[in-house]
Amino acid sequence: MFEALTNSTAIVALAEIGDKTQLLAIILATRFKRPLPIVLGILFATLANHFLAALLGATAAAYLDGQWFRFAVAIGFVAMGLWTLVPDKMNEDEAPKPTRHGAFLTTLVAFFIVEIGDKTQIATIALGARFNDALAVTAGTTLGMMLANVPAVFFGNELIKRVPLDIVRMIAAALLVATGVWLFVQTLGIF
């Protein structure tokens, strides 16, 4: 459980730096200027989205467990690592406009929707399959999302200007690729 929690936290926290959802957090913070409801919206959207993703991965692992499935998960980690090297961008027209529903509900819905098919959601599915523990993976990926997004809500563009995103992306990519290679080697029975 500890390994699932720590690996999930590290992978998602690094992969989230410069991700579209982090850019969304900055846009929402700029538009609403109410950090607490935005942080809570991110938290609840991530818990819901990532629990479903981790559950999907763990369920798939339970039914599809076999050497070929572990190889597929390993290849998935390597592919996500390579995908992490591609920077995300968000156009102004993609960002939600302030509505009468307020900062919390707008953030909750926007984050849940934007996270669908995002690399951190796909990583959560793979982590759920890898560790077969939806709760620990959800806790870890949610913690990783919060570690990356809470500072973005409070410090916004200043954070993006000061953090070398290319280096962070390379570290995240290396971590994902290393996880994939390690899983591949374990599946081969070398270690």
Structural class: mainly alpha
Count of DSSP-assigned helices: 8
Q: What is the percentage of strand-forming residues? A: under 5%
Overall geometry = globular
Count of beta strands: 0
Tell me the major beta sheet.
none
Helix content: over 70%
How would you portray this structure in words?
By secondary structure, the chain is an all-alpha fold. Helix content is 82%, strand content 0%. α6 runs antiparallel to α7. The mean pLDDT is 82.
List keywords for this structure.
191 residues, mainly alpha, 8 helices, 0% strand, globular
Give a topology summary:
Elements (H helix, E strand, L loop, with lengths): L1 H15 L3 H13 L2 H30 L2 H18 L17 H14 L3 H13 L2 H29 L2 H24 L3
Helix pairs in contact: 1-6, 1-7, 1-8, 2-5, 2-7, 3-5, 3-6, 3-7, 4-6, 4-8, 6-7
Summarize the structure in short.
This protein is mainly alpha-helical. Helix content is 82%, strand content 0%. The model has no long low-confidence stretch (mean pLDDT 82).
